[in-house]
Amino acid sequence: MATFSLLPGSVALITLTNPPVNALSAAVRAGIVQAVQRSVEDPKVKSVVICGQNGRFCGGADIREFAGPMSGPPLVPLIHAIEALDKPVVAAIEGLALGGGLELALGCHYRIAHTTALLGLPEVTLGLLPAAGGTQRLPRLAGLPAALDLITTGRHISGTEALELGIVDQVTDGSALDIALEFAKSIVGRPLNTRRLSTLPCRCPTDIDNLLDRFMVQVRQRARGALAPVACVGALRAAATLPYAQGLRKERELMDTLFNSGQARALQYAFFSQRVVGKWTLPSGARWDNTTSRTISTAAVIGLGTMGRGIAVALALAGMSVVAVETQEKQLSEARQMVPAMLQREAGRRGLDTAPGVISFCSSLQDVSEVELVIEAVFEDMALKLQLFRQLSAVCKPDTLLCSNTSGLDIDQLAAATQRPGLVVGMHFFAPAHIMKLLEVVCGTRSSPETVATVMQLGKRMGKVSVAVGNCPGFVGNRMLKPYTEQANFLLEEGAMPEQVDKVLEEFGFPMGVFRMSDLSGLDVGWRIRKAAGLTGPGVEPTRTRQGRRYSPLPDQMCEAGRLGQKTGRGWYQYDGPGGRVARSDPWVQTFLDAYRARHNLAARVIAAEEILERCLYSLINEGFKILQDGMAAGPEDIDAIYVFGYGWPRHRGGPMFHAGQVGLARVLEKLEHYQQLHPDVAPMKPSMLLRRLVAAGSPPIQKWRELIHRERVHSQL
Ligand SMILES: CC(C)(COP(=O)(O)OP(=O)(O)OC[C@H]1O[C@@H](n2cnc3c(N)ncnc32)[C@H](O)[C@@H]1OP(=O)(O)O)[C@@H](O)C(=O)NCCC(=O)NCCSC(=O)C[C@@H](O)CCCCCCCCCCCCC(=O)O
């Protein structure tokens, strides 16, 4: 709702009241309509201030309402009524003015903001555009280039930047509300014509067409198939070239095409998934809201390779005092050089003069004896990690948490090597660890709820999307990646080329296809893991069936040929040299694949894009269902957040589990059955029991899956 109060000095104060972000729900909109009406009718009211309760102006339209039929007073005429008032209206922007919240403020005659308030039009991140006049008023106020930037990226800006762009009239470090109230009294009687943005011309440079065309090219490239950014440019073109009323009609027309699109649904689902994963639950019943966490202020990182360096920087950026340990002298001296520069650069990127935390370097494990939490980031080798965990258990204070950055090894085994298994947990970061948002928090069977809560909380402080997952080989992300890459390798055996597979995946929206990705991360990473698992190496028969399953030795053979990817200048593609970044097709790979197929009597066939996509994605999705079935992820949102934030899954497709729902669970099942019949030796194509159960239950919406999984588990049907 919204409250109305008449304050001394004849100022009407309208307060939006809908915690926690004062979203513009139907009740709030109705409240504003009534309060505006009172302001019009009451002769005692000489000016109006609009603010939000609890120091938060407004988080925009109520996103939850978009899932059902829209009711209540619409926003566009409401904002027009405010703009048309002949009494001055001032927006007092504290905390945030986002989306419809900023559009409401743009309908006011003046805007006063706190310097640290967040302003922006993030609709594009929800698959929408600012359709309450935002695409028409903002370019009239801040100019077309600034509006293009803000509306197509959805980025938030501070009150200070908003002042520089002319979006607000004044900023303060004190109370924006107090200043707004005083200001509102002082401007009674001033003419308002120039303050009504809809009546002003758009502020455009002379070469509008040229600017918009160039911008559209960039936006299409960045969007990777997302519709909303392109529609935003369309709406801004209308603002620049048409009178306001026509521009507004175009804005609405474009919004109508987006509003019910699968992409908008996917992006809104992704918004809520990100929040759902913070509300973690463990199979034991421990939850985010019934478990206390410890606040960590001192931490250590052991091993200063790429991952360790990034983790140390991420911890320092979160205000931690970090001890960075590396026993190899060369690596330590490199880290001493690189890490402070990384820290400074990242702090600068976040608008800080210096990082809030500090990092000290040393070469001895004894130096971590006093810290509260240790993150091990040494080489991915179980024997090495076990030895380290034994040492840490002896060296550290009894209540120090011991965490491993392993990307898939057994956390329970590491915990068993210590005298404190309850304090052991996995913290699986993604490279570069100071930039990538995802953190898999791997809960071992003996990890205590307090340990999990503490690490989840720490992840949040580090700005990560932390997802609690179970302890199984590869955890969630890498476990699902395995059948996906395996399937891509099988496709090469059957006749596809790496660039063909990559093109299909990139057109789907991944920033990189599986082979380009593999070249980037290094083919030797998986090779080492497969060697450790006894799947390849000296003495292993070079057949296409290993350990009872179809196996493609292609990636092993690439490694044996010294083609490790970008680092050697050759992999699935060729590069300008070691460390090169630009991938080019390599005739060597064609010859290599031809020879391989000939050796194994495999006839190359033409493989359609549809088959490539279905086999890669559905095998990954099927593994996701198995993960849910095994209880290794609490719900589909967890898997989807992992894939969106850690594996480049296009956000406008929600995540793999959401995508399965969009395609139709019955269709995914049917396709898996089809490919399984064709390739019965490929275990990951065998449809999971949970997928079958969901289809049998009538393919309920994704929001209902948790409930069904819980019910089926109780009845031991999974
Ligand atoms: C605001 C934040 C930055 C706050 O972050 P913080 O970290 O402090 O907190 P949380 O993110 O954890 O959030 C707390 C809590 O609040 C929930 N929440 C946040 N924002 C909203 C919201 N806008 N609506 C609903 N709920 C919200 C959040 O989910 C948490 O609750 P939970 O229970 O999950 O813990 C941050 O939250 C944030 O970034 N929020 C989103 C801000 C945003 O994106 N705003 C824009 C919204 S879209 C919009 O405003 C659209 C406008 O342009 C209006 C358009 C006019 C509409 C016209 C429609 C007509 C079209 C009809 C076409 C029909 C066609 C046809 O059918 O034919």
UniProtKB/TrEMBL annotation:
Protein family according to the UniProt entry: Belongs to the enoyl-CoA hydratase/isomerase family.
Substrates-to-products reaction catalysed: a (3S)-3-hydroxyacyl-CoA + NAD(+) = a 3-oxoacyl-CoA + NADH + H(+); (3E)-hexenoyl-CoA = (2E)-hexenoyl-CoA; (3E,5Z)-octadienoyl-CoA = (2E,5Z)-octadienoyl-CoA; (3E,5Z)-tetradecadienoyl-CoA = (2E,5Z)-tetradecadienoyl-CoA
Subunit record text: Monomer.
Presence of the UniProt keyword S-adenosyl-L-methionine in the record: no
Listed GO MF terms: (3S)-3-hydroxyacyl-CoA dehydrogenase (NAD+) activity; delta(3)-delta(2)-enoyl-CoA isomerase activity; enoyl-CoA hydratase activity
GO BP annotations listed: fatty acid beta-oxidation
Pathway(s) served: Lipid metabolism; fatty acid beta-oxidation
Domain 3-hydroxyacyl-CoA dehydrogenase C-terminal: from-to ranges: 474-575, 612-699
Residue ranges constituting the 3-hydroxyacyl-CoA dehydrogenase NAD binding domain according to the UniProt record: 299-471
Keywords: Fatty acid metabolism, Isomerase, Lipid metabolism, Lyase, Multifunctional enzyme, NAD, Oxidoreductase, Peroxisome
Matching PANTHER family: 3-HYDROXYACYL-COA DEHYROGENASE (PTHR23309), PEROXISOMAL BIFUNCTIONAL ENZYME (PTHR23309:SF49)
Subcellular location per the Swiss-Prot or TrEMBL entry: Peroxisome
GO CC field: peroxisome
Keyword NAD: yes
Lineage, opening ranks: Eukaryota, Metazoa, Chordata, Craniata, Vertebrata
E.C. numbers: 1.1.1.35, 4.2.1.17, 5.3.3.8
Protein name as annotated: Peroxisomal bifunctional enzyme
